[in-house]
Amino acid sequence: MKIRAVEFIKSAVKPAHYPEYDFPEIAFAGRSNVGKSSLINTLINRKDMVKTSSRPGCTQLINFFLVNEALSLVDLPGYGYAKVSKKIRAQWQPMVETYVETRKNLLGLILLMDIRRDPGKEELDMVRWLETNQMPCLLILTKADKLSKTKQLKQLDAAASAFNRDRNGIVLFSAKTRQGRQTIWDEIHNLIDW
Ligand code: GTP
Ligand code: MG
User: Fold this and answer.
1) N or C: the chain end with fewer CB closer than 10 Å?
2) Structurally, how many domains does the chain consist of?
3) pTM for the full model?
4) Residue 108 pairs with which residues in a beta bridge?
5) Rounded CA gap, 18 and 5, in Å?
6) What is the mean pLDDT of residues 72-76?
7) Residue 165 burial (CB < 10 Å; 0-12/13-18/19+)?
8) Looking at the CA of 34, which ligand is closest?
């Protein structure tokens, strides 16, 4: 997809604050610090449109971005970071669940996992929950540049068997090398049926 224009629209916590447009929307989820914001920057060819940080817990609100005045990309706050306060953790789950359950224009979720970790309970639970909500979910193993090609494929197989998916249903990605960027765009196009 040729990126002509990207706009930050707004941050939101609850449905009343979500933007009122009805463009197709794709959201990015995953553990804190996994690289959600970096992945969005890579997709839209911007270095720092979406704020990233080496400190986990950088994104704490639901952030809406509009691409080419046609496609909405949503950066969700990360989960599972032990050092954020209990209060923030207690806010996270209802914030993301409400978003997924109520957002009409949401067509799919992209779930990122660090390629160096085996999928955890959070990810398995999240995928099962999305399936019961009939929400399509694309799985990404990110920071692929941290492993050799052989190890990348080994982790791909482990994830495919953990989620009971075909290898082709999981994308190897790196924000550093941009490996996997085009595949993710192709999958987004499939999800929104353009
Ligand atoms: P939260 O907003 O805290 O939930 O984090 P996030 O998932 O948005 O992660 P973010 O994009 O801010 O990246 C976290 C750290 O990982 C930053 O230091 C990034 O530079 C680094 N990072 C992200 N993607 C990659 C990647 O593909 N390869 C490498 N080597 N580092 C990455
Ligand atoms: Mg972030």
Assistant:
1) C
2) 1
3) 0.93
4) 26
5) 20
6) 95
7) middle
8) 1
